[in-house]
């Protein structure tokens, strides 16, 4: 019953590998989101997304300049 032992070992290895890689993504997400909308406080990755956000969510407002 060699295959049964191989299966158990493979499951154990996969469990160890998955356990190491799992975790919270909050830190990675916080690093990626650099720009915040001053009106609704939503966090965005860059100025281009902020411009698109303003055109869709705040059409009557003028987006802030890139220097902010």
UniProtKB/TrEMBL annotation:
Protein known as: Uncharacterized protein
Lineage: Eukaryota, Viridiplantae, Streptophyta, Embryophyta, Tracheophyta
Protein source organism: Smallanthus sonchifolius
């Amino acid at each position: 019953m060699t295959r049964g032992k191989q299966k158990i070992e493979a499951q154990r290895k996969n469990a160890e590998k998955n356990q190491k890689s799992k975790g919270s993504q909050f830190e990675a997400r916080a690093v990626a989101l650099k720009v915040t909308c001053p009106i609704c406080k939503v966090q965005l990755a860059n100025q281009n997304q902020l411009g698109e956000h303003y055109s869709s969510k705040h059409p009557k407002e003028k987006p802030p300049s890139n220097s902010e």
